[in-house]
Write a structure and sequence with these properties.
The complex is a heterodimer of chains A (about 150) and B (about 250). With about 150 residues, chain A is mainly alpha-helical. Helix content of chain A is about 60%, strand content about 5%. Chain A has a domain at about 55-145. Chain B is built from eight helices and nine strands. In chain B, the strands form two sheets. A seven-stranded mixed sheet of chain B has the order 3-2-1-4-7-5-8, sandwiched between helices. In chain B, strands 6-9 form a two-stranded parallel ribbon. In chain B, helix 3 packs antiparallel against helix 6 and helix 7 runs parallel beside helix 8. Chain B is globular, with a radius of gyration of 17 Å. Classes of the chains: A mainly alpha (about 150), B alpha/beta (about 250). The interface of A and B includes residues 35, 116, 122 and 130 of A. Chain A: Stabilizer subunit of the dolichol-phosphate mannose (DPM) synthase complex; tethers catalytic subunit to the ER. Chain A: Component of the dolichol-phosphate mannose (DPM) synthase complex.
């Protein structure tokens, strides 16, 4: 356990956390309302929005925001940025988290795509039905006077 | 004309379905697809019209279309040809200008999309008053015919990536068998800037942005073309570029 050279002020810690995490989270929550308003763009680039008070974040911005939030939290815990002197187990668990999550997501993706490929329906009946109907159609159209 | 479904009572006689068929070198398939459309839409009693948008096909597609017009009537088959191959987005715009229906159905003219699903689309649309009804190959008993493992893998992999990055709320983004309210299609086409596969993806993503409701109907996709034109590196690269563009801008 790390020995700090000064005493932690809990109130200061709380304020710092609030500033670093909760307040931005609230602001973003009120600003990122997904499909609630429109920022459309006409070709030519003039944006027009139906709501004047909020804007929609692009997916890229959402990802960057989420990543920096989680990244900040991870760094906070792993490197003890606020000198919170958390128990050592927290740091031990948090440190490899990004790698674990990445690998888990990779496995999940492979499993999901694999499952979906394996259960991808083959429409043999539809293909046969189409062949039948093509024959029928050609016959009927010939009778109606279509010249190929 | 474009009657607003929300302000008028739903009567079948009010709804007219315009089917846009952009064609290029479909001399053989056009009569077949028109026959199937007439069969399924005629049998179900819906009011419809078929708009053939031929981009100056050298194989005489337009001439076949004219024969079909004589057989089925100029009120059912409308010809709106263009001089040369100008792209799908502009074909839709061009077709819509002359469409008298309040619903627009877009589909491929190469028989990969089967008109028997159109009454299902219509029913689904009425169920939820959806702005867009999309045919999906990935859900329910939707599926494909004529794809090998490699093609299926690429398709599912690309779709998975799209779902993760864009979270679009629809299972099949690159499909092009859809029913739109005319007003919805008009607003979407004017906002979309991409081409090819990505154009279809962008339509759905922008529909989400504009809060349009999207319904899905499982369809079977019979690919008779795949054997001739394999999905090459070029198409994969342009898909990836388009996906990243949508990721960064929507």
């Amino acid at each position: 356990m790390l020995q700090g050279s000064y005493v932690i002020n809990p109130r200061r810690a709380e304020l710092a956390l609030r500033k670093a995490v909760w307040r931005p989270l609230k602001t973003i929550k009120s600003r990122v309302s997904l499909p609630q308003q429109v920022v459309g763009r006409r070709r030519g680039g003039t944006p027009h929005s139906l709501s004047l008070t909020t804007t929609t974040m692009t997916k890229l911005m959402q990802w960057l925001f989420g990543a920096s939030l989680l990244g900040g939290l991870w760094a906070l815990v792993s490197f003890d940025l606020l000198d919170l002197n958390l128990p050592h187990t927290y740091r031990e668990v948090a440190w490899p988290m990004p790698l674990y999550l990445l690998v888990s997501f990779g496995c999940f993706s492979l499993a999901t795509v694999g499952y979906r490929v394996a259960t991808f329906n083959d429409c043999d009946a539809a293909a046969e039905e189409l062949q039948e109907q093509i024959r029928e159609a050609r016959e009927d159209l010939r009778r109606r006077g279509l010249k190929v | 004309m474009a009657s607003r479904k929300t302000t008028q009572p739903k009567r079948d006689t009010e709804d007219k379905y315009s089917i846009l068929l952009p064609t290029y070198n479909e001399r053989e398939n056009l009569p077949l697809i028109v026959w199937l459309l007439v069969k399924y839409l005629g049998e179900s009693g819906f009011n419809y019209e078929i708009i053939v948008i031929d981009d100056g096909s050298p194989d005489g597609t337009l001439e076949v279309a004219e024969q079909l017009q004589k057989i089925y009537g100029g009120d059912k088959i409308l010809l709106r040809p263009r001089e040369k191959k100008l792209g799908l987005g502009t074909a839709y715009i061009h077709g819509m200008k002359h469409a008298t229906g309040n619903f627009i159905i877009i589909m491929d003219a190469d028989l990969s999309h089967h008109p028997k699903f159109i009454p299902e689309f219509i029913q689904k649309q009425k169920e939820g008053n959806y702005d867009v009804v999309s045919g999906t190959r990935y859900r329910g008993d939707g599926g494909v015919y004529g794809w090998d493992l490699r093609r299926k893998l690429i398709s599912r992999g690309a779709n998975f990536l799209t779902q993760v990055l864009l979270r679009p709320g629809a299972s099949d983004l690159t499909g092009s068998f859809r029913l739109y309210k005319k007003s919805a299609l008009e607003s979407l086409v004017e906002r979309c800037v991409s081409k090819g596969y990505v154009f279809q993806m962008e339509m759905i993503v922008r529909a989400r942005q504009l809060n349009f409701t999207i319904g899905e109907v499982p369809i079977s996709f019979v690919d008779r073309v795949y054997g001739e034109s394999k999905l090459g590196g070029n198409e994969i690269v342009s898909f990836a570029k388009g996906l990243l563009m949508l990721f960064a801008t929507t």
